[in-house]
């Protein structure tokens, strides 16, 4: 299934033939050698993976490659998330590799994660020999069928001569249009067979023609709406980062003077410190951002998809707003919210054209007057700022920990977060001034994402500091990749926000299940099962991390917070893990309860903002 999806159009494209003789021809190579040569030619410099029977032929020639570095992970899920972190940090296509059967199925979660967040990824899997396909052979799985709903496209290769063309097409599809994961499943006999390697290959992708240039008429209509609006909002999604359009966005925002909200996937697309930025919208978004969208008379959505976590109850979302929706994926436009002005195109080209069209409107004397709108917005910002209370018992506040990690991190640090409370606190209390400095699992909400994603980011950007902000629940899913980091000179830093519980689930149990904490305590079992463990924390993350080759620290006292973080920042030759023992009852606010309207946003527990009258005239 080949789909045209959201995209950048700014990645280097694979070279293809156009009638000329191939630049490179090598005879008498195996399909496996052809695969490695193809990866070299498309510019893949890092592969995360684990060998196994069906993919083993590919690992022999990879040993001789001077251009492709293989990083041996401890679990295929780690390989997939590492490839995603690499792609999100660098803007290049991430690559992971696994064998057939369970090796391939262990990639399903990171492939689904990449699909939800439009990450350019190529997953290469071994398959049983072509004659054995469909016989339930040892370690056989129909990985193409399994991943069809969660890949942009996938290929089953049974002939060695098809490998170069398939790899070129896979990288082209992954990186263009709406980026996404592409799976290449290669039968073992195709890897073993003799063939001729030729590059560049002749690619053939009928029907795959992503539209990048927006329609001029739609751009003019959007500019007219922007200058005529009284309460506009620029609703910015992750597509703006993927398109490399952050500079153009800043020009458009400052030209119009409209407020900007950046989604969870778009943090860093527009500087947090900019006066036009009103915060992140959504279920746990800033009150001002949530309310701005609700009260707006015009929403200009750029590379965003009106996700349910942003809209809340859909039929009550932004009831007064006309919508300009720009996205490279035509399937997203009108999917959740009808667009008054639909614009199909690459975000960078769309925003650049919008700037010119708005300038033309201004030259004709049509300029929006948003003074009253900013009066409301500023009042909400002052009345309902992001904040938190320190625990009365003097223990560590998780928000304070994350805020200090962000404040003390060197310039250019990349942050990767797991999923849950710590993810939302990292979104709120670390300042993101630049794109590709915030990595997280937004659409799939994959626990266990942070450590391998941070590993991939550090492998792709070795000169930049990388912090993983993780919860104790997430950390226990993929912490084995710290061994990979230690053995491969990938010195990431990990902050474990250790509250001894599945924090976000516990918060919901507190709010909606009468404080019945069913199966959310992590560090100890029921007292009647193991009374000797009462009051202890299992596992001991310091001992565990040290056993995996890391420097490990623990912090429980707020007085030691900065000292411990600075100590971690000073260590750059090994991975560093800090076990922060934090208060277990801290909660994420603001909050819109699932299934309710954004009008019911709560600034804190029991605190419903009062916006007065007249804003929604």
Description:
- The protein is α/β, with parallel strands linked by helices and 617 residues long.
- The protein folds into 3 domains: 176 residues, Thiamin diphosphate (ThDP)-binding fold, Pyr/PP domains (Rossmann fold, 3-Layer(aba) Sandwich); 168 residues, TPP-binding domain (Rossmann fold, 3-Layer(aba) Sandwich); 184 residues, 3-Layer(aba) Sandwich (Rossmann fold), CATH 3.40.50.970.
- Helix content is 34%, strand content 16%.
- It has 23 helices and 20 strands.
- Helix 13 links the parallel strand 12 and strand 13.
- The chain is globular.
Give the overall form. globular
Uncertain spans? 1-20, 613-617
Strand order of the largest sheet: 3-2-4-5-7-6
CATH class placement of the largest domain? Alpha Beta
Q: What would the CATH topology of the largest domain be?
A: Rossmann fold
Strand content: 15-25%
Average pLDDT across residues? 93
CATH architecture of the largest domain: 3-Layer(aba) Sandwich
Keywords:
Rossmann fold, disordered N terminus, 617 residues, alpha/beta, 23 helices, 20 strands
């Amino acid at each position: 299934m080949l789909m045209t999806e959201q995209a950048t159009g700014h990645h280097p494209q694979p070279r293809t033939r156009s009638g000329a003789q191939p630049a490179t021809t090598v005879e008498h190579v195996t399909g496996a050698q052809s695969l490695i040569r193809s990866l070299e030619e498309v510019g893949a410099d890092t592969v995360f993976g684990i060998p196994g029977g069906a993919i083993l032929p590919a690992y022999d020639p990879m040993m001789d490659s001077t251009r492709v570095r293989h990083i041996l992970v401890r679990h295929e899920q780690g390989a997939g998330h590492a490839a995603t972190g690499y792609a999100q940090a660098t803007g290049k296509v991430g690559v992971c590799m696994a064998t057939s059967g369970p090796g391939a199925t262990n990639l399903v979660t990171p492939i689904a994660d990449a699909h939800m967040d439009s990450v350019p990824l190529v997953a290469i899997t071994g398959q049983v020999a072509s004659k054995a396909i469909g016989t339930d052979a040892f370690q056989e799985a129909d990985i193409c069928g399994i991943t069809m709903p969660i890949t942009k496209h996938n290929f089953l290769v049974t002939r060695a001569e098809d490998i170069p063309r398939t790899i070129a097409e896979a990288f082209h599809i992954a990186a263009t249009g709406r980026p996404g994961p592409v799976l290449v499943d290669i039968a073992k006999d195709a890897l073993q067979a003799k063939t001729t390697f030729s590059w560049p290959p002749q690619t053939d992708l009928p029907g795959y023609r992503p539209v990048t240039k927006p329609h001029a008429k739609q751009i003019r209509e959007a500019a007219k709406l922007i200058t005529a609006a009284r309460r506009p909002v620029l609703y910015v999604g992750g597509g703006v980062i993927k398109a490399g359009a952050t500079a153009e966005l800043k020009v458009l925002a400052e030209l119009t003077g409209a407020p900007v909200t950046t989604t969870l996937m778009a943090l860093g697309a527009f500087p947090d410190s900019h006066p036009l930025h009103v915060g992140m919208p959504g279920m746990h978004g800033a009150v001002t951002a949530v309310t701005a969208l609700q009260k707006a008379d015009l929403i200009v959505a750029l590379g965003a998809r009106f996700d349910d976590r942003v809209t809340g109850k859909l039929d009550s979302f932004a009831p007064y707003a006309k919508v300009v929706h720009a996205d490279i994926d035509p399937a997203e436009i009108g999917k959740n919210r009808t667009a008054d002005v639909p614009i199909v195109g690459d975000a960078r080209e769309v925003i650049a054209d919008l700037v010119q069209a708005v300038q033309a409107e201004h030259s004709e004397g049509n300029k929006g007057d948003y003074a009253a709108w900013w009066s409301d917005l500023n009042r909400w910002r002052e009345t309902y700022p992001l904040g938190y209370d320190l625990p009365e018992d003097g223990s560590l506040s998780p928000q304070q920990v994350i805020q200090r990690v962000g404040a003390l991190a060197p310039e250019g640090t990349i942050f990767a977060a797991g999923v849950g409370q710590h993810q939302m606190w990292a979104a709120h209390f670390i300042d993101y001034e630049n794109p590709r400095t915030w990595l997280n699992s937004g659409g799939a909400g994959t626990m266990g994402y942070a450590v391998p994603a941070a590993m991939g980011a550090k492998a792709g950007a070795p000169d930049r500091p990388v912090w993983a902000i993780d919860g104790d629940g997430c950390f226990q899913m993929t912490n084995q990749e710290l061994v990979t980091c230690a053995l491969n000179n990938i010195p990431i830093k990990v902050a474990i926000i250790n509250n001894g519980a599945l924090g976000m689930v516990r918060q919901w149990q507190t709010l909606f299940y009468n404080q019945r904490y069913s199966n959310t305590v992590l560090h100890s079992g029921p007292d009647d099962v193991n009374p000797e463990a009462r009051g202890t924390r299992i596992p001991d993350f310091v001992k565990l991390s040290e056993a995996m080759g890391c420097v490990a620290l623990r912090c429980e006292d707020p007085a030691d917070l900065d000292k411990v973080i600075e100590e971690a920042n000073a260590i750059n030759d090994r991975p560093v893990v800090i076990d922060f023992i934090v208060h277990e009852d801290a909660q994420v606010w603001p909050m819109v309860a699932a299934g309710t309207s954004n009008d019911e946003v709560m600034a804190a527990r029991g605190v419903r903002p009062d916006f007065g009258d007249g804003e929604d005239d």
